[in-house]
Design brief:
Elements: E1 7-10, H1 18-31, E2 35-38, E3 42-44, E4 54-60, H2 67-79, E5 83-88, E6 92-94, H3 101-109, E7 134-139, H4 143-148, E8 153-157, E9 160-165, E10 168-171, H5 178-182, H6 186-194, E11 198-202, H7 206-209, E12 214-215, E13 218-223, H8 229-242, E14 248-251, H9 260-270, E15 275-278, E16 296-297, H10 300-308, H11 316-327, H12 333-346, H13 350-363, H14 374-386, H15 404-419, H16 426-436, H17 443-465, H18 492-505, E17 510-511, H19 522-529, H20 535-549, H21 560-573, H22 578-592, H23 603-617, H24 620-650, E18 654-658, H25 679-689, H26 694-699, H27 705-720, E19 729-731, H28 736-741, E20 742-747, E21 751-756, E22 770-772, E23 778-780, E24 786-787, E25 790-792, H29 793-796, E26 803-807
Parallel strand pairs: 1-2, 1-18, 2-5, 5-14, 7-11, 14-15, 15-16, 17-18
Antiparallel strand pairs: 3-4, 6-13, 8-9, 9-10, 12-13, 19-20, 20-21, 21-26, 22-25, 23-24, 23-26
């Protein structure tokens, strides 16, 4: 198995094709990358910007190139000594387009389709209108109104009749057209549609009535039953052919699968010698199951640990108090998380909740459980799911396996649910706990356990990542995938402990920092983190800005919470266009679901927020003050960025660089972080970097040259000293004030990384602070200087603000 030295993520779509990637191969090789890490390459929905909406596992996405271009790309990678890691999507397929032949066949033939069991469809759901049918929630209004407006039409397509509703097309059951020819009016059309294997419905019905498993709350992404041998074979046969030239796989959303371990075992048999990492989101204190046959996660856990290093825990109280004072918002993050998980379970996931409630009611009498009204079962189930402290557990009912960690998480969820149940019968929670711990057995019981585990993950993702993270805005740089919003920074020792555990258990895990899913890029977070060092100045600044901008508000809109997010967003991403800023603030306000949301827009609030953002961006006095404030953060933020970059390149694991982030990048959430990258500019900077010193690189820092220079230099050292960066991890013993301001560790007894943090109050002067180096002689690989013994930090960092020391012998 070849472990990547460093991966480089590329987002393929119709605007960035294989031919474009081919032209980058020499650049990536010169940068020091060992493996390209590609977004999904299988055929996706037309005009997909990301590739996760795969509609055909059997062919290359034609929008990104041809098979010949793929072969040419692979050949160029090999010739330049690079490998390829592919992102795969085993959990779901896009069904919002007729390009999905499997789904089209199911809609046409119903349960008689060869692919009827490929999708996780509840053919016997409790809704009598959907028995043996599939809900198709695509209509812009109620079915009867759409029918009255003659928006549904039968047309001919490829020689056969199909149903057409604007851009949507649906097949018709063979032979069902006969009576329609005799009665082609509305009544005849309605009769025709009643004979189909699908039921057209208003799009708003999806969250309440959908009868197939989906990815999160997206009705156009239907879950597939990859646990079935036939489905695995059909969805992985082409991948099996591609494995001859693939070096690794990144598995998307394993928590959506019925049995992740079983799937990963099956995948490992298919790819016995490939590097495999999983998009598993780990909560604080949670570890990746050690029986998973993978090399680790995609690195969100690392991202949150390294980000926490640059948040000053000592100022948590001051930052929290001002946030509460300015916004009037609650600051108990645990209660906020619980509340928002309840919210999405009651709304977005009503159909999944209702299915589980029906199962509970049916099972309860079998196990002599007292009869309760459906509403009580529903409330108890929502509280139980909302109380899970992790994305999901991995109980395997078919194997009768409950691991110790899962036992603890289930017990914690039950205890928490009872405490917050406000007098609900404890028997409800005891029964669900007994089911999850496999005390109660049976086919329905096993199905309940599997499906509840498939629900806790999206409930966490939508409730926390996509709701709570936009409501609790004390310091928004904390609010990243997998983070605990209540954890305000970490100590150096906590970070070193994390790295030691990683080295012992998952030394080849991916190390992420920016991804296609991060709320903010690593450099935007690095700027915002600095606010934690200056709570008093931040307070004065926000109050000043708010007073300046009061004239741009209308009737208390936008709310202070949105205003607080807005100022942090400007600090993290400035300069940015009004278009990008408006798009982000729209997303932030809709995700928060406090005054407006995607499905229930508050036009007055939306318009007021838009006008506020536009007016403030065009307010020269405010923008002048903003730019003056940011100018005091610019250099410290760049130093923080270099520090976290060097850490990522030096700790145990395989560092990943998200496309474009080899220089300063101040992207916000999707689609901002998937926008086109100016690779010509980066090629030009790389050419410069090959001929200049660290000191020159730092002096020419405005365009991000130091970051690219550091990456190139450090990856060259990793290539030269492979065994060293696979070797031991030891933290350096730091004392006094130096310990607060430095992160220092040694790899393999030969390479020492030293980076600064919390530098705002130092104002560029280390004031006699020093670090004691072990051993006799060390060479600073960035500056070429030789150092030993007690080294003054002013001297160590005077040419370049971070250091990589290599032992003299």
């Amino acid at each position: 198995m070849e472990i990547p030295r460093a991966t480089y993520r590329l987002q393929f779509n119709e605007h960035f094709r294989l031919a474009d990637a081919l032209a980058l191969v020499p650049y990536l090789s010169a940068l020091g990358i060992s493996h390209v890490y590609a977004s999904p390459l299988f055929k996706a929905r037309a005009h997909s910007g990301h590739g996760y909406d795969v509609c055909d596992f059997g062919q290359l996405n034609p929008e990104i190139g041809t098979e010949a271009e793929l072969e040419k790309f692979i050949s160029a990678l090999r010739q330049n000594g690079l490998g390829l890691v592919l992102d795969i999507v085993p959990n779901h397929m896009d069904v919002g387009t007729q390009e999905n032949a499997w789904w089209w066949d199911v809609l046409k033939n119903g349960r008689a389709s060869r692919f009827a069991n490929h999708f996780d469809i509840d053919w016997e759901c409790s809704d009598p209108e959907l028995r043996g049918k599939i809900l198709a929630p695509v209509l812009g209004d109620r079915y009867e109104r759409v029918l009255e407006r003659d928006e549904l039409k039968v047309i001919e397509q490829n020689g056969e009749p199909v149903l057409s509703y604007f851009e949507h097309k649906f097949p018709l059951v063979p032979g069902s057209m006969e009576k329609f020819f005799a009665n082609p009016g509305r009544a005849g059309l309605n009769e025709l549609l009643q004979k189909q294997h699908y039921r057209l419905a208003f799009w708003d019905d999806a969250d309440k009535r959908l009868n197939y498993r989906r990815f999160f709350a997206i009705a156009t992404l239907a879950g597939i039953r990859v646990e079935d041998e036939n489905v695995f074979r059909d969805s992985h046969s082409r991948l099996g052919q591609w494995l001859q030239w693939l070096d690794g796989l990144r598995v998307d959303h394993p928590d959506g699968l019925r049995d992740p371990k079983e799937y990963l075992d099956h995948l490992r048999r298919l790819a016995p010698d490939k590097w495999i990492v999983v998009e598993k989101i780990l909560q604080l204190g949670e570890t990746l199951p050690e029986d998973w046959k993978v090399q680790g996660t995609v690195g969100y856990d690392f991202m949150n640990e390294v980000n926490g290093l640059f948040i000053q825990p000592a100022n948590e109280k001051a930052m929290t108090e001002f946030y509460a004072e300015f916004t009037g918002e609650p600051v108990d993050s645990k209660k906020i998380v619980q509340e928002k998980k309840r919210l999405v379970l009651e709304t977005l996931f009503a159909t999944e909740v209702n299915r589980l409630v029906k199962m509970l009611i049916e099972m309860a009498p079998t196990h002599s459980i007292t009869s309760f009204p459906p509403e009580q079962w529903r409330d108890a189930l929502i509280e139980f799911v909302a109380s899970f402290p992790v994305y999901r557990t991995y109980v395997r009912p078919e194997k009768n396996v409950v691991e110790e960690n899962d036992f603890q998480f289930i017990e914690l969820a039950a205890t928490k649910a009872k405490e917050s149940s406000r007098g609900r019968a404890p028997e409800l929670f005891d029964f669900m706990t007994g089911l999850m711990l496999l005390i109660y057995h049976g086919e329905r019981e096993s199905d309940f356990v599997a499906r509840l585990q498939q629900l806790t993950s999206p409930a966490m993702a939508k409730g926390v990542e996509d709701t709570a993270f936009y409501c609790f805005n004390r310091l928004v740089s904390i609010n990243e995938v997998g983070a605990d919003p209540g954890r305000f920074g970490i100590s150096a020792e906590e970070f070193h402990k994390y790295c030691r555990i990683q080295h012992a258990r998952w030394p080849h895990s991916m190390l992420g920092s920016s991804t296609h899913d991060t709320k903010r890029s690593e450099d935007a977070r690095a700027r915002i983190n600095l606010l934690s060092e200056i709570p008093d100045e931040w307070r004065e600044t926000v109050l000043r800005w708010s007073k300046m901008n009061e004239r741009h508000r209308k009737s208390d809109y936008p709310d202070r919470n949105a205003e607080y997010v807005y100022y942090q967003t400007l600090i993290g991403a400035w300069p940015l266009s009004l278009e990008r800023l408006l798009a982000y603030m729209e997303k932030a306000s809709c995700e928060a679901k406090q005054h407006t949301d995607w499905n229930r827009r508050n036009a007055r609030y939306d318009e007021t927020l838009k006008n506020f953002v536009t007016a403030t961006v065009n307010d020269k006095n405010f923008i002048g003050d903003l730019e003056k404030f940011i100018s005091t953060l610019s250099v410290p933020a760049q130093i923080n960025s270099l520090a976290q970059t060097l850490i990522r390149l030096a700790v145990p694991g395989a560092p990943d660089i998200y496309q474009g982030n080899e220089i300063w990048d101040y992207s916000l959430v999707d689609p901002d972080n998937r926008r086109p990258v100016d690779f010509q500019h980066r090629k030009k900077l790389l050419h410069q970097a090959s001929d200049i010193s660290a000191e020159e690189a730092w002096k020419n820092r405005e365009e991000g040259l130091p970051k690219l220079w550091l990456i190139r230099k450090t990856l060259a050292m990793r290539a030269k000293m492979k065994d060293v960066f696979k070797g031991t991890y030891e933290s350096l013993n730091l004392r006094g004030e130096t310990a607060e301001h430095l992160i220092a560790f040694m790899r393999g007894g030969v390479a020492i990384t030293i980076v600064p943090r919390f530098i705002l109050k130092l104002k560029g002067d280390w004031k006699g602070l020093a670090v004691e180096l072990p051993g006799r002689s060390w060479r600073n690989e960035f500056t070429g200087e030789n150092v030993s013994g007690k080294v003054e930090l002013n001297a160590l960092f005077h040419k370049f603000p971070v250091a990589l020391l290599i032992k003299g012998d």
